[in-house]
């Protein structure tokens, strides 16, 4: 059993200590769970107890977060999770660099920034390339940041409209039994898009832009036959496109436009036997200029830490199943 040790972090004032702790010490609990340490407040100090290597990581995380607080940045649970993830990956020294740029301010005046290197690469790719693919698990910020970049481009006059779409494939539910036309049936599945819009610019402003046609949120079938100039186009849930749908969508790209294609290849809801257009696109388009692929992983998840653990658990189960199928295939061939 590794020897236990303790190290004290000293705060300059009570404000730093309060902001670092979070409501009901929520931030401290996240650090404890992520790094297997115990944190105890003692006056103007924070005692960090545990294995020496874990204590050192926790001390560095606390220091990095306090540095943000000194810069008058209000930290959140997502910031704490990002800091602990980066500490475990050995990249914490770059943590502060992520907070040098404010991408946008939401309707309440809160600053929106990238939370990790995966998100930073994603944003940089969107700025540099005509088409960016964001591929990875839920909770990595793909959809939200795509909407952020779209609104920013609209405000700067770089595009005239925002178009957001997704394939009309349901996750274990039947669209056919829902009332209304195709758009009305798909609208409930667009909820994450509307939520992002409402957070950033408010529900009333979103509705006005939708009514004026500046923002269009529609199923993928509505894209056929169109050429989309001067537009910022987002395809969400792209893992549920077929090869034909993906080709159709990508060839809608017009002049002075950008496309973002987001998806999670572990969440494919296509009928049995149908192949995902997103998986095919990775193979077919990987060497095309002005097209870039950003791959997120569980370490880029900025939701509750358990979400990352869930993603890892499912990936491990899928890998075990794939290995089992390979073994069964080999056994079958060896008996023939």
From TrEMBL:
Protein family membership: Belongs to the PhoH family.
Phylogenetic placement of the source organism: Bacteria, Bacillati, Bacillota, Bacilli, Lactobacillales
Keyword ATP-binding: yes
Name listed for the protein in its UniProt record: PhoH-like protein
Compartment(s): Cytoplasm
Record keyword ATP-binding present: yes
Record keywords: ATP-binding, Cytoplasm, Nucleotide-binding
Domain (PhoH-like protein): residue spans on this chain: 112-315
